[in-house]
Design goal:
The chain is mainly alpha-helical and 230 residues long. Helices cover 45% and strands 9% of the residues. The chain is globular. It starts with a strand and ends in a 6-residue tail after the last strand.
Length: 230
């Protein structure tokens, strides 16, 4: 998800995922490749370092570039389900059937991991660059680029994102890999900051309470760019 943060509690979603998040896609691809560690994204990155994309029969598809919907084709939203399905087919057609021994099978697994990682990150960078350009055109110069979440521990993604931010003239904020884990602390801290600024709601039923926050299964960060007239 790509979000423009204008102030605490004031956000605009520039691009989101139509299916899996990139982190979920990495985990699912890890399982397809036989990785049993959870989460599997780090293991995919390790496999990718030993891969050789030249043995892949055809390049993995660029998500959404051939969509008939111009908003999806030219927008900032992302999709990883097609990549995941392509990986599944490669595993079934080559890793599990055409590899003649364990050494060849290991090379195929690493190469599929590398091809997936490169294409997934290509997709994220394309959509992120587009989001930065759109936001800059409307809101003026942006200042910081923040990469966070579990997938931010991926070294390949971090390096590519840093280069993109440099190209766009943005200062980069990226937590150290050991902090790119569960987001419970991030959620709790966001709640603390909202409470500190008075961003709470009156209780539905007053039982000696003066402050309350509605519990929602999925709390929206803000409206989507495509829903706004900016």
């Amino acid at each position: 998800m790509t979000v423009l943060a204008m102030a605490l509690g004031k956000y605009m979603v520039l691009g989101s995922t139509l299916d899996d998040s990139i982190g979920e896609a990495f985990d699912k691809v890890a399982r397809l490749l036989g990785v049993t560690h959870v989460p599997g994204g780090k293991e995919v990155e390790k496999l990718a370092k030993r891969g050789n994309c030249s043995i892949i029969p055809s390049p993995l598809p660029h998500p959404l570039v051939n969509s008939r919907n111009p908003r999806l084709r030219n927008g900032c939203d992302m999709s990883f389900s097609g990549l995941k399905e392509h990986v599944r087919r490669l595993v079934e057609s080559h890793v599990n059937t055409q590899a003649h021994d364990e050494k060849e099978r290991a090379l195929w697994r690493s190469s599929v991991a590398k091809a997936f990682q490169e294409r997934a990150v290509d997709h994220v960078l394309q959509r992120t660059a587009r989001a930065i350009d759109k936001a800059s055109a409307v809101f003026g110069n942006l200042t910081y680029f923040v990469l966070a979440g579990g997938v931010a521990s991926n070294t390949y993604l971090r390096d590519r994102m840093r280069r993109l931010a440099d190209e766009k003239g943005l200062k980069v904020l990226v937590p150290p890999p050991k902090r790119c884990t569960d987001n419970a602390v991030m959620v709790a801290w966001a709640g603390f900051e909202r409470l500190r600024l008075g961003l709470f709601e009156p209780p539905i039923e007053s039982k000696n309470l003066t402050q309350a926050v509605e519990i929602r299964p999925r709390w929206p960060l803000g409206s989507h760019w495509d829903e706004q007239k900016v």
